[in-house]
UniProtKB/TrEMBL annotation:
<dbReference type="GO" id="GO:0008146">
    <property type="term" value="F:sulfotransferase activity"/>
</dbReference>
<keyword id="KW-0963">Cytoplasm</keyword>
<feature type="domain" description="Sulfotransferase">
    <location>
        <begin position="40"/>
        <end position="285"/>
    </location>
</feature>
<comment type="similarity">
    <text>Belongs to the sulfotransferase 1 family.</text>
</comment>
<dbReference type="GO" id="GO:0006584">
    <property type="term" value="P:catecholamine metabolic process"/>
</dbReference>
<keyword id="KW-0808">Transferase</keyword>
<dbReference type="GO" id="GO:0005737">
    <property type="term" value="C:cytoplasm"/>
</dbReference>
<keyword id="KW-0128">Catecholamine metabolism</keyword>
<dbReference type="InterPro" id="IPR000863">
    <property type="entry name" value="Sulfotransferase_dom"/>
</dbReference>
<dbReference type="InterPro" id="IPR027417">
    <property type="entry name" value="P-loop_NTPase"/>
</dbReference>
<protein>
    <recommendedName>
        <fullName>Sulfotransferase</fullName>
        <ecNumber>2.8.2.-</ecNumber>
    </recommendedName>
</protein>
<dbReference type="Pfam" id="PF00685">
    <property type="entry name" value="Sulfotransfer_1"/>
</dbReference>
<dbReference type="GO" id="GO:0006805">
    <property type="term" value="P:xenobiotic metabolic process"/>
</dbReference>
Amino acid sequence: MTQREMARLDVTETFQGIIFPGHLHTQESLRYATNFKFQDTDTLIVTYPKSGTTWMQEVVTMVSCRGDTVKSQTQPNWARAPWIEQYYCPDVLKASQGPRLLTTHLPYELLASALQGSKAKVIYVARNPKDVVVSYYYFHKMAKFLKDPGTFSEFLSDFLEGTVYYGSWFDHVKGWTSNARNIDNFLYITYEEMWEDLRGSLMKVSRFLQCSLLEDELTSAQKTCGFNTMSQNCMVNYTLIPQEIMDHSKGKFMRKGQIGDWVNTFSQEQSHNFDEVYASKMADSMLKFVWETKKSSIDTEILPLSTV
């Protein structure tokens, strides 16, 4: 770890009214992202933090490698699918060959201009926001480049107000999905959909990427993208990150991988308040999310995005 990285652990960058952790983001890197030169062969994974980013990086890796596990087991996910807004991205891309796999947490309005006229494929992964906020809270507790989240109640309030890193979840998910028509090649998929039917989700992504898989390739991809396999893969689970940056004694980056786990953290009052804010902020959206599970089966239907 460089002195530069250590010096920026406590830095917060503000860009276009949104705050970002300065450990990985600079004004220069954020400007680089908003002016990014997309290529038609690019695949861009877009997520709000803690919404299935790592999972989709693994899915696209395994689909594009047609079930071959070598890249998954030898190359860290941040190197094979760099975040375009993080300072190291240009150097990674200079050393890369072939079609590029990219990642971003940026809201649509910051990338709209860069994507205009591009045929790059965009995959947007969304997740039940109650599970997002719980996962995000626990990540703040172990990631030393993120602010102290305070109590869960305090963090939940910040999340609902959109004053957390990367801004408002509501603005992020609505911004990308409501502008899906402005993107030539756009795939919307949910974390819950992947959890319920990983094999089907792999097939959905392979069709979108026009990269059909044979049965044995699909089986290999499904095994590699399973939560247990990923949680033990050091190229995926962030255990390669030094303790000074990510304190693994305070939790796991890949914590549970479940859906509906928010019920173990939210109080009834917090859940009710969240529902009211959600209803207000998402009144103009057709998106539906899974809120609960019964045993191991999903008891709420996942509805497709009607505008895509």
